[in-house]
Amino acid sequence: MFVAKSISAGHKDLIHDVAYDFHGRRMATCSSDQSVKVWDLGDDEEWKCTADWKTHYGSVWRVTWAHPEFGQVIATCSFDRTAIVWEEIVGESRQEHGQSHWVRRGTLVDSRTSVTDVKFAPKHLGLQLATCSSDGVVRIYEAPDVMNLSGWTLQHEINCKISCSCLSWNPSRLVCYNLSFL
After folding, report:
1. What is the dihedral of CA 72, 41, 166, 82, to 10 degrees?
2. pLDDT reported for residue 181
């Protein structure tokens, strides 16, 4: 039986996106308050906010999780014309006692307008990230070294000739489409 639960997210403005990790045990939210929050599902089946930080200089439109094979990695995109890749680092010092924090690993600044969506590729394509922006450009980036997330290379730039507000990857290994936009 499905039971709907609500949580008090504590954002100070409109929430634009909610994304679950691969296993459905973690959740991220983003908001016009320029912040992202990460939530963990406890043994008691309650969501607990485990991280909360300011990510951008404008509204944060989307948040997405990478496949866990690449670690605990999320990406965000914003009205401030950037997409940012974040990695969770678990503290190893005695003072941190296993607490985690999120570190900015890469900032993608190619867009001249608001970046409206961001999605990681299916894991069989490697660590790739697609963005789209309100000026109608889809960009696909790749991290050539998955151990160093600070180096992202622009692989493709596709001009759609119309404003883009969302995108998605096809998860199939068997199907390949060549899309054109009129």
Report:
1. -50
2. 47
